[in-house]
């Protein structure tokens, strides 16, 4: 991941990664509703910050199926997003 982490007083660590939206697919789902599948890959170019994230996270993938249009609308093709990983305890 990015190597950027924070230690809170309760010893929970967070790892931050930076991903770019590579594709958005729209399709019909159960009952005729629409689902948008958002596919993200780690960033690798575009800025010095992206290069630092790439050095820590050179590979990976995230795929989200969004059934709510308002959730899918947050993602733009080519947009970059931070992803924070924190243990679910």
Task: Tell me the strand percentage band.
Answer: 35-45%
Looking at how many chains there are and whether they match, the oligomeric state comes to single chain
Average of pLDDT? 87
Overall SS class: mainly beta
Low-pLDDT residue intervals, each spanning 5 or more residues: none
- Helical content class: 10-25%
Number of strands: 5
Q: Main sheet?
A: 5 strands, antiparallel
Order of helices and strands: EEEHEHE
Gyration radius over CA:
15 Å
How many domains comprise the coordinates? 1
Shape: globular
Terminal Cα span: 20 Å
How many distinct helices?
Answer: 2
From the structure above, extract its key features.
five-stranded antiparallel sheet; 5 strands; 2 helices; mainly beta; 89 residues; 44% strand; globular
Question: Which helices and strands appear, and what pairs or packs with what?
Answer:
Elements: E1 5-7, E2 13-28, E3 34-42, H1 48-56, E4 62-66, H2 69-72, E5 80-85
Antiparallel strand pairs: 1-2, 2-3, 2-5, 3-4
Short description:
This protein is mainly β and 89 residues long. 15% of the residues lie in helices and 44% in strands.
Task: Describe the structure in your own words.
- By secondary structure, the chain is mainly beta.
- It is built from two helices and five strands; from the N terminus they run E-E-E-H-E-H-E.
- Strands 1, 2, 3, 4 and 5 form a five-stranded antiparallel β-sheet that branches.
- The protein is globular and about 45 Å long.
- The two termini are 20 Å apart.
- The mean pLDDT is 87.
